[in-house]
DNA sequence: AAGGTGTGCAACCGCGCATTC
DNA sequence: AGAATGCGCGGTTGCACACCT
């Protein structure tokens, strides 16, 4: 079962690399490149497996690697992207070109994760460890804590949505057509917020509509996803049967014009929660549900 | 000073995906 | 079509060093 480990051959060296080995690898890759890592060690005169050489090159020897302490900006980028993507270190590393996925992964584990835990936040969900939901409850002090937590998570969701929209732009470029489905499918499963935080069905769908507009809006514009267009009166929203119709509707009704109001944190949370709780449904069904109310 | 414990990080491992044959 | 191969990824391990008692 499975494939043979490439280092299975006896006699191949493992463990820390010596400066001599580093030099051999650097010299070889510098001269010949690394089109086939399996062939690299033999040609470079190394008693290592290709995989080990690749790893050493990527994580340590590559000339454009930045080493040393992470800047505050890098730190924030990692936190935001982790909130968005989870443990997708290679994708996170792609946003920090001079850092390796391994380095970011280690930095996360040894530094950021502990800080989040210290702040009382779950490093996976970025929500409070205590409840991991937004269920509100209590006296004034708890409420103010909840407010802070809501703001905190809203920031992550905000980052998530922006990155989501940007990511979706790439998907559009590569030929994806089911945009709404993409958005829905990529919003990760996380603990649900309390149902009573959704005040009405109207608000739910209204905010979902806002989110669809804003995320789709970002497919065509670099304007912040957090600016939402003026929403048409509830009763004016037609039956929308597919994404193309939605986009056409938006264009025809000029709803992209005049992004007037920023989403409030709780709006974001309501909308995100609405997406999460309804992500198995198609966006079209949700609109149908809404317009038939 | 010495042993124990914690921390950071380089390197390894196993798996999945894409490509090749 | 499917087996073989190579690459890349995320998780884990183990070593070296720092700190504590």
UniProtKB/TrEMBL annotation:
Main location: nucleus
GO cellular component: nucleus
Annotated Myb-like domain residues: 9-61, 62-112
Keyword Transcription: yes
All residue ranges annotated as the HTH myb-type domain in the record: 9-65, 66-116
InterPro entries from the UniProt entry: Homeodomain-like_sf (IPR009057), Myb_dom (IPR017930), Myb_TF_plants (IPR015495), SANT/Myb (IPR001005)
GO biological process, one term: regulation of primary metabolic process
Gene Ontology molecular function, alphabetical: transcription cis-regulatory region binding
Gene3D superfamilies referenced in this protein's UniProt entry, alphabetically: Homeodomain-like
CDD domains registered for this protein in UniProt: SANT
Compartment(s): Nucleus
Subunit-structure text: Can form complexes with MYC2, MYC3 or MYC4.
Protein name, UniProt field: Uncharacterized protein
């Amino acid at each position: 079962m499975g494939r043979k480990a490439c280092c299975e051959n006896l006699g191949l060296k493992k463990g820390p690399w010596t400066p001599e080995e580093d030099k051999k690898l650097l010299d070889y890759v510098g001269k010949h490149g690394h089109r086939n890592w399996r062939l690299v060690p033999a040609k470079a005169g190394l008693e290592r497996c290709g995989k080990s050489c690749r790893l050493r090159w990527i994580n340590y020897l590559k000339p454009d690697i930045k080493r040393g302490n992470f800047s505050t900006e890098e730190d924030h980028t990692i936190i935001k992207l982790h909130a968005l993507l989870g443990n997708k270190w290679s994708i996170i590393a792609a946003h920090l070109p001079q850092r390796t996925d391994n380095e970011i992964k280690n930095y996360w584990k040894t530094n950021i994760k502990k800080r989040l835990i210290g702040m009382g936040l779950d490093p996976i969900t970025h929500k409070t460890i205590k409840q991991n939901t937004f269920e509100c409850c209590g006296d004034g002090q708890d409420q103010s804590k909840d407010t802070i937590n809501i703001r905190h998570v809203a920031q992550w969701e905000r980052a998530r949505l922006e990155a989501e929209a940007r990511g979706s732009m790439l998907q559009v470029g590569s030929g994806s057509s089911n945009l709404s489905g993409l958005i829905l499918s990529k919003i990760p499963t996380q603990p649900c917020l309390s149902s009573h935080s959704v005040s009405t069905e109207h608000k739910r769908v209204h905010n979902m509509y806002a989110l669809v507009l804003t995320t789709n809006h970002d497919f065509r514009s670099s304007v912040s996803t957090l600016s939402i267009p003026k929403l048409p009166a509830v009763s004016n929203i037609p039956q929308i049967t597919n994404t193309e119709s939605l986009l056409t509707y938006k264009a025809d009704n000029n709803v992209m014009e005049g992004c007037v109001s920023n989403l409030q944190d709780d709006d974001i949370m309501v909308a995100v929660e609405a997406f999460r709780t309804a992500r198995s449904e198609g966006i079209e069904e949700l609109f149908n549900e809404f317009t038939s109310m």
